[in-house]
């Protein structure tokens, strides 16, 4: 993806775009793939970087939602399980089967969860990833050796999916481009254009060059997640808030705290949620929380109480108990929950279903949803946009659309499996030695990845590379700070930037990385 080429298309296009999408997270990128693959002239604008917000800060799970089943939200579970299967089928280099063990300390827990998870398996049908099974005490200890042994009676093993969220987002952007979409990061929408009280385009600004644009479209889609209300209020200044932001925090620990390839699901926490400990890139992600947030921020910060909550509840189930000094990184994301009709403040009770809203002026907004159902959300958005924009009716084809880099034989033992079919090209950018050796002894990041991010993935800043094109910042914040000068130098040489650019990037990255360090 070449940013300059996409900007050029904006400047040269004389006709209105069929669809303009505001927002470059999961829902916006999914919509761009769907719209472009139907043959619509599609433009996506993102004010920061692709997946800068919520879409890079998940628990890294592609799941139906065991907790939603427990809450009786059957329709959401069925939809999510179907989408989980489609996601794995279309992106086997990015989505894999992951087994979860639920330890049991009460005689009734294993049968209770065993029956529930058999229902979960049945709902998945042909798209299931594997059968759930009851475990005795010894089998449970073999699978998750670090689990607390006192009082352990057994457990249940079940299967869900795992993925790399930010890498999926970049692959979706590339897929959309492959089908003819134009996408530009660091290009924010500052206002809506209206004619006869109908939305007919957007005002935008390139945050890198400060150039301003007026761009016409037959229909505009608002896919800005927790910031959806900001765009809606450009259209309807008196609109009530339609999004309830809920903060989810995760901590990252060394792999010794899991000591195996299986994830742990803690079924009971002090606030009634479940907690996951998930193996990821040779580390362990533990989370999450559910905290009501009044005002969304671009860079949300973990609360001390949230960190304590995770440590307390994870530690209750581990023999090797993690402490604050064991945390390698901490990250916070905001869920864009669609506000309930009854103004409930209990965010964990708010449905994760999505809603497509059309204003009287024709602005289409997607509210709520979750990563796993991004494709279905996109299908619903573009079906609606067809009608609103008077576009020729064309069927969605994304159920069987391979995601960029598709590689059925991806080697998941290689940290670079996320590049899929592009991996051979990536390896040719530098010498064999440089491609195979990491810039850091603690996190997987190579010179070839940095060059590829700049040349092919529209990485514009040091943070883009460290946080999203590679996952260095999310895995180990201190180690990321240590190698930041070397990465910035590689980027500067590739982009033709000077020493001032390097210094500015290092200062900006330091500001961001502080939120990931305790």
Topology:
Blueprint: H1 3-12, E1 17-22, H2 26-37, E2 42-45, E3 61-62, H3 66-70, H4 74-90, E4 95-104, H5 109-124, E5 133-136, H6 137-143, E6 154-163, H7 165-178, E7 182-184, E8 187-195, E9 198-206, E10 212-222, H8 228-235, E11 243-254, E12 263-266, E13 275-280, E14 283-287, E15 291-292, H9 304-315, E16 329-338, E17 354-358, E18 364-368, H10 374-389, H11 423-427, H12 432-436, H13 447-456, H14 462-469, H15 472-475, H16 477-495, H17 499-513
Parallel strand pairs: 1-2, 1-10, 2-7, 4-12, 10-18
Antiparallel strand pairs: 3-6, 4-6, 5-6, 8-9, 9-10, 11-14, 11-15, 11-16, 12-13, 13-14, 17-18
Helix pairs in contact: 2-7, 2-10, 13-16, 16-17
Q: What top-tier CATH class of the domain at 3-54 and 167-242 and 346-396 fits best?
A: Alpha Beta
CATH second-level architecture of the domain at 3-54 and 167-242 and 346-396: 3-Layer(bba) Sandwich
Query: Percentage of helical residues?
Result: 25-40%
CATH-derived topology of the domain at 3-54 and 167-242 and 346-396: FAD/NAD(P)-binding domain
**Number of E-state strands:** 18
Q: Regarding quaternary structure, how should these chains be classified?
A: single chain
Average residue-wise pLDDT: 92
For this structure, what is the CATH homologous superfamily of the domain at 3-54 and 167-242 and 346-396?
FAD/NAD(P)-binding domain
What percentage of the residues does DSSP assign to strands (E)?
A: 15-25%
């Amino acid at each position: 993806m070449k940013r300059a080429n996409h900007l050029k298309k904006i400047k040269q296009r004389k006709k209105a775009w069929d669809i303009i999408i505001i927002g470059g997270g999961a829902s916006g990128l999914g919509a761009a793939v769907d719209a472009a693959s139907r043959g619509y002239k599609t433009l996506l604008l993102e004010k920061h970087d692709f997946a800068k917000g919520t879409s890079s800060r998940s628990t890294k799970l592609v799941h139906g939602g065991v907790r939603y089943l427990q809450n009786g939200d059957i329709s959401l579970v069925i939809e999510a399980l179907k989408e989980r299967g489609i996601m794995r089928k279309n992106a086997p280099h990015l989505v894999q089967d992951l087994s979860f063990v639920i330890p049991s300390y009460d005689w009734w827990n294993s049968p209770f969860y065993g029956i529930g998870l058999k229902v979960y398996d049945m709902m998945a049908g042909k798209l299931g990833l594997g059968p759930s099974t009851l475990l005795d005490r010894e089998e449970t200890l073999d699978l998750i050796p670090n689990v607390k042994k006192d009082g352990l009676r057994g457990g249940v093993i079940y299967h869900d999916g795992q993925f790399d969220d930010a890498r999926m987002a970049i692959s979706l952007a590339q897929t959309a481009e492959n089908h003819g979409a134009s996408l530009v990061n660091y290009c924010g929408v500052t206002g809506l254009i209206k004619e006869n009280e109908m939305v007919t385009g957007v005002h935008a600004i390139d945050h890198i060059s400060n150039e301003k644009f007026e761009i016409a479209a037959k229909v505009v889609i608002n896919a800005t997640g927790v910031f959806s209300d900001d765009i809606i209020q450009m259209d309807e200044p008196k609109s009530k808030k339609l999004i309830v932001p809920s903060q989810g925090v995760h901590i990252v620990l060394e792999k010794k705290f899991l000591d195996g390839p299986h994830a742990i699901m803690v079924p009971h926490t002090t606030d009634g949620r479940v907690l996951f400990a998930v193996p990821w890139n040779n580390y362990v992600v533990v989370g999450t929380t559910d905290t009501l947030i009044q005002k969304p921020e671009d860079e949300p910060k973990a609360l001390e109480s949230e960190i304590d909550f995770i440590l307390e509840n994870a530690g209750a189930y581990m023999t090797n108990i993690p402490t604050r000094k064991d945390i390698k990184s901490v990250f916070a994301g905001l869920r864009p929950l669609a506000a309930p009709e009854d103004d409930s403040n209990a965010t964990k009770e708010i449905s994760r279903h999505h809603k497509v809203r059309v204003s009287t002026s024709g602005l289409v907004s997607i509210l709520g949803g979750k990563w796993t159902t991004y494709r279905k959300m996109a299908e619903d958005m573009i079906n609606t946009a067809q009608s609103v924009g008077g576009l020729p009716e064309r069927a969605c084809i994304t159920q069987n659309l391979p995601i960029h880099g598709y590689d059925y034989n991806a080697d998941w033992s290689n940290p670079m499996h996320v590049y899929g079919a592009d991996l051979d090209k990536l390896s040719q950018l530098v010498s064999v030695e440089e491609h195979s050796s990491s810039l850091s002894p603690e996190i997987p990041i190579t010179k070839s990845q940095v060059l590829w991010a700049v040349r092919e993935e529209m990485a514009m800043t040091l943070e883009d590379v460290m946080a999203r094109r590679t996952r260095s910042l999310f895995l180990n914040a201190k180690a990321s700070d240590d190698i930041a000068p070397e990465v910035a130098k590689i980027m500067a040489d590739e982009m033709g930037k000077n020493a001032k650019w390097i210094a500015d990037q290092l200062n900006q990255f330091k500001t961001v990385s502080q939120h990931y360090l305790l």
